[in-house]
Amino acid sequence: MRILIVDTYYPAFLESHYDDRPELADAPYDVQWRALMDRFFGTSDAYSHFLGELGHEAHEVVLNCDHLQRAWALEHGVTRKRRVGHHKDLSPLLEQAEQFRPDVVYVQDLNALGPRALRGLRSRAQLLAGQIASPAPSMRRLALYEVVVTSFPHFVRRFRANGIASEYLRIGFDSRVLEHLPNADATHDVVFVGGLSRSGPHAKGNRLMEEVAERVPIDYWGYGHDRWPPESAVRRRYHGHAWGLDMYRVLRQSRIALNRHIDVAEDHANNMRLYEATGVGTLLITDAKRNLPELFEPGEEVVTYGDQDELIEKIQHYLANEPERARIAKAGQSRTLREHTFGVRMGELAAILARYIA
Fold it and tell me: What are the start-end ranges of the H helices in the chain?
């Protein structure tokens, strides 16, 4: 199969990436793309890399990376249209699809493209697929895709009940990251890396993290910290952004990584941090969810909590019992590297897509 993957990255990350590497802005497309993928932000090029190992041909297009899309357009003689208001020029994307001639267009951000663009992509492929692990758009928008892949098991049921073809695919860990991380002793005790906003889908979990941090020290990296008052633990122990490999380094150098889920996950374990923390060999303490035992064995491969007091108790226990902490962390990493890598996931995804093409 030939699979064109359409993704978007956080604008703050893209701005930081090019600010730190100003020479990239005028570099050829392939140079810019490789430099961006080598940051290991999000899923980076894990899809194309591991699909390639399975004999498929795939490529990631970062739709909202203007420098990258401009370079591709210039190199391929595509005249970009003048941007009107908030409407992004999608002519390079449609031309990329035209030249790549994919069997599948796989859209990672279901809010990034409107009906006209999706119809244009659909006309250039046998299958238009979407992926979602965040609050869902309207059923009307979801119906524009021929299949919606999600790591939320409850979404699969709801989408199907509304007549939308949907398949379950768990998130994974990019094992290539380990090649870029030094073997070093932990320099942080307890960390949280991620969205720190006081509002929106992260609000409930972040309030709990902030309250816990008043009783046990937690070091924070991420974005959205500026909405907390100056006296808050989030602001006092905030260390800046940590994108891609920088995030993995923080996790690797920590004894304990904390996790919490957004409200839309409901009672289901599902986010990247489950696999990022365990994948680098750090003890993960995560909120208890109904389906977590399908992913990891609680108490043996990860540690769970039900409320604020239990989280504090677990943090204190594992900081005071290093052999036990290390044993669980090692078991969690072994489980992730055995069952939860993108190498495994891409085999599962390829089987799903092949069924829908057939």
Answer: 11-20, 29-37, 46-53, 66-75, 91-100, 115-122, 139-142, 153-161, 203-212, 233-236, 245-252, 272-279, 292-295, 308-320, 322-339, 342-357
Q: Exposed e or buried b for every residue in 186-223, given b needs 16+ CB within 10 A? A: bebebbbbbbbbbeebbeebbebbbebbeebebbbbbb
Report how far apart, in Å, the C-alpha atoms of 228 and of each of 203, 211, 268 are: 11, 12, 28
Tokens standing for residue 329: 């962390």
Q: Which domains does the chain have, with CATH numbers?
A: 2-172+342-357 (3.40.50), 176-339 (3.40.50.2000)
The per-residue pLDDT for range 168-205, each reduced to its tens digit, is 999 999 999 999 998 878 899 999 998 877 666 666 76
> What value does the mean pLDDT of the chain take?
93
DSSP characters for 106-160?
EES-TTS--HHHHHHHHTTSSEEEEEESSS---HHHHTTSSEEEES-HHHHHHHH
State pTM to two decimals: 0.93
Strand partners, 60: 5
Contact between 274 and 259 (Cβ < 8 Å) = yes
Residue 217 is classified by DSSP as: -
For tokens 């909202």, what's the residue? Answer: 64
Instruction: Write the pLDDT tens digit of every residue in 50-106.
Output: 999 999 999 999 999 999 999 999 999 987 665 533 446 788 899 999 999 999 999
Q: Note the pLDDT tens digit of each residue in 290-319.
A: 999 999 999 999 999 999 999 999 999 999
